[in-house]
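P.,

For your records, the input lines for the assembly:
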Amino acid sequence: MIKVENLNKIYSKNGRDLVVFEDLSFEVQTGEFLSLVGPTGCGKTTLLNIIAGLERPTAGRVLIRDREVNGPGLDRGLVFQEAPLFPWKTVSGNIELALKAKGIEGRNLRELSREFLETVGLVKWADYYPKELSGGMKQKVALAKALAQDPEILLLDEPFGALDAQTRMIMQEELLKIWERFRKTILLVTHSIDESIFLSDRVIVLSSRLKGAREVIEVGLPRPHLPTEKFWKLRTQIWEIIRDEVLEP
Amino acid sequence: MASKRSFWWWSPLLVLLAWELASQRGWVSPQLLPPLEAVGGAFLSLFSSGDLVRHLGISLLRVILGFSLATLVGVSLGMAMGWFRRWRGFFDPLVEILRPIPPMAWIPLAILWMGIGEASKIYIIFYGAFFPIVINTTLGVKSIDENLLKMARSMNLKGWLLFKEVIFPGSLPAVVTGLRIGLGVGWMCLVAAELIAAESGVGYLIEESKELLRTDRVVLGMLLIGALGILSDWGVRSLEKYVRRWL
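Structure tokens returned:
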């Protein structure tokens, strides 16, 4: 479904090159849940932005269904940690806008938006503004908005990063439900190792020190991914890779 | 908030009392500061003769026209300057050079170009109100959250829909600030323009009354401008309240 081929990203500033990643290649299968973990500055978000078509790679390319990405598209729905909704639009208005951008018009906009709010259980909040919602609710609406766009792929950039631990766990379960129900391909950027193992089929550990090297970890657990012995082994395995980086950047 | 609002008239009342006391006791000459009731009398006589309504009406019309024009041009240009780097690069130097020139300095030229009719006064008001509006609008567009713009791009929002649903509402708080400042400047420019060259309007009323040594009418004119300024500011503020719903 998604093919990342020999992707390079280099920022040049004042004549000096900052290599974010080099020669990065991997594939994401249709319907797969894949997480990208790594320390701050390893280029997780940059990678996601490139797949989203919001940034250009220095070299290499991204293919979606064998077509090269050269800009944003409705086949990819995005959810950010920061500012996931338009603050000047109500909950319903945000979802209606996603529908409008797809070219849907007319009176059934509101009804349609209601359906998507139902999937995240927030119909009662349709006429509230984002500022009146809690962090978790905002992210739920953002998910509903991304679903309303009806993309094949969901790109999630630390969507639960700003939430408290309990809300985060609830949101993770909510996300799995959505994934199982709508069968989307999900690419999640997170800095939480537990979150990546709990949610994903595979975890890609991005390294900032070894530009070319990165590890792909198969979770290979029956769902739900409960904290069994294998879970902890994976956690240790990922942590070992990341810890070296955090200690000697 | 409630207590703040219900006591807003305390300080004006205190000033009025001090004023009344000063003229009652004869601390100041009535020529320099007319007593309250003289101003009230001036109000009644001008109102019954119809002059007051005429002066107020024409002043109000000038401000509305000049301010509307400034809003139209200022918001449009500001949006374009905020969004398109080339527009900003092209117009920014011009705005920065013209901005420090006080609107009053334009009066001689405005009269030469447009005569002493309505056009020159509307132009002065337009000029004064334009800069706060255009600058705040540009700033408003530029300060829209980068993440929201990214989201808009990923949602495939383009053209009119992007403008209507994202750029315009996103910059609205700053636009409203610009409008408030612009309107205030507009009133000042009105009076300046009317003081120098006019045959009607509140500014003219003040100037004419000064010539006739009718300080009661001078003070009346000043109070009227203050009152009109507050009223129009309330209008813009209701727009602000609309914006505050989601801020």
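Two observations worth noting. Chain A touches chain B at residues 49, 52-54, 72-74, 76-78, 80, 82-84, 86-89, 97-98, 100-102, 129-131, 149 (CB under 8 Å). The first helix of chain A runs from residue 44 to 52.

Regards
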